């Protein structure tokens, strides 16, 4: 993200590079931003990851403006399908993996946050 922003000519003030997961990123980013007086963020991440990321960043006290990227635009999603659309393929397997990863992540975060409350 830092490189992309610098290529656009933006001055990057804060970089969090110590986290191992989304919640750690939210926690460490929030601490850094609070010290600078920042309370609201644009949360830029893949659309499939946005619900869990938003939950984590809001949980640590930041106001989040969601800014999803990487939305999928397959023919089936546009309402046009064909017979080959029903044949399993690597992309569909990967999309299924991402879906279940995020569903389990959401459940884990909700459980974790409820237990912490």
- Shape descriptor reads globular
The radius of gyration is 17 Å
The profile of the biggest β sheet is:
2 strands, parallel
What is the arithmetic mean of pLDDT?
88
Major beta sheet, strand line-up: 1-2
Can you characterise this structure?
It is a single chain. By secondary structure, the chain is mainly α. It has one domain. Helices cover 49% and strands 12% of the residues. The protein is built from four helices and two strands. The mean pLDDT is 88.
What attributes does this structure have?
117 residues; mainly alpha; two-stranded parallel sheet; 2 strands; 49% helix; 12% strand
Summarize the SSE layout with pairings.
Elements: H1 2-7, H2 22-35, E1 40-46, H3 50-59, E2 63-69, H4 90-116
Parallel strand pairs: 1-2
């Amino acid at each position: 993200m830092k490189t992309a922003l610098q290529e656009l000519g933006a001055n990057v003030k804060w970089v969090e590079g110590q986290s191992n997961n989304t919640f750690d990123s939210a926690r460490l980013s929030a601490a850094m931003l609070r010290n600078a007086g920042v309370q609201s963020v644009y949360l830029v991440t893949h659309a499939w990851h946005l619900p869990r990321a938003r939950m984590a960043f809001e949980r640590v006290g930041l106001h989040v403006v969601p800014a999803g990227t990487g939305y999928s635009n397959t023919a089936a999603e546009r309402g046009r399908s064909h017979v080959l659309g029903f044949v399993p393929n690597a992309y569909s397997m990967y999309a299924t993996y991402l879906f279940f990863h995020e569903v389990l992540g959401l459940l884990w975060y909700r459980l974790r946050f409820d237990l912490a409350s």
